[in-house]
Amino acid sequence: MPIHPPPERWTDEANGVLDDLRRIVRALRESSRHAESTLGVTGAQLFALRALADSRPLSLNELAARTRTHQSTVSVVAGRLVDRGLVRRTRSESDGRRIELTLTSRGRALLERAPLAAQDKLIEGLDSMPRKEREHLAISLRALVRAMQLEDEAPAMFFEDEEATPSPSPKRAPRAR
Questions:
Q1: Per the count of CB atoms within 10 A, which of 106, 128, 163, 177 is most buried?
Q2: Per-residue pLDDT reduced to its tens digit, 84-97
C-alpha cells in the first residue's frame, strides 16, 4: 500500500482528524516557544512549575501524577528546574527517604508573569469532555498509535526533548551529580 493514498481515497474524517491534530500540536508548540522566549523555560517546565504552585511539597511521583507524565520523564524536567533555581529539592522532615519538590521564590515570581501553558488547556479540555467521549478518544488514539507502530515509544513531555533548554544562570553553579 502506498504511503500516501490517492486523493480519491481520502476521507473527510481523516482530513478532520489531521486538521484537529495539527491545531493541537501547533498550540502546544507555540505555547512552548512563547514560554521559552519570554520566560526562559520550556512549555514542559512551565507546566511542571504550575503543578507545583498550588500545593504542599510534592514527591517526584506526585509531580508525575499531577502532570500526567511518567516519573522518569518529569524527573528530567524537575532536575532542570532545580538547576535553574526555580524549584528546591529537600528531604522530607517526616520521612527522611522522601525527596520533596517546592517552588522557590524565583519560581513563584516567574509564574506570576506566566500565561497558562497549552498543556493545562489540553487537560482542562479533556476533563471537560463527557466520560464516554474521553473513553472513545483514548481507544481511538491507542489504535492510531498501534497502527503507526509507536506503542513502544516512551512518551515525553510535549517538546521538552526537542527544545534547547536554557542553561543555568551564570550566578549559580550546576548541581553536583
A1: 163
A2: 999 999 988 888 78
- Which pTM value belongs to this model? 0.73
What is the model's pLDDT at position 120? Answer: 86
- Please report the pLDDT score of residue 170 as a whole number: 36
- Phi, psi (deg, nearest 5) at residue 11: -115, 155
List, for the chain, all residue ranges whose pLDDT scores fall below the cut of 50. Answer: 162-177
Contact 21, 76 (CB under 8 A): no
Under a CB-based contact definition with an 8 Å cutoff, are residues 58 and 101 in contact?
A: yes
Q: Domains in the chain, please, with CATH?
A: 19-147 (1.10.10.10)
Q: Are 35 and 117 in contact (CB under 8 A)?
A: yes
Q: Answer positive or negative: Cα dihedral of 130, 136, 142, 147.
A: negative
Q: What is the SS3 string spanning 57-115?
A: CECHHHHHHHHCCCHHHHHHHHHHHHHCCCEEEEECCCCCCCEEEEECHHHHHHHHCCC
Spatial separation of the C-alpha atoms in residues 47 and 32, rounded to whole Å: 10
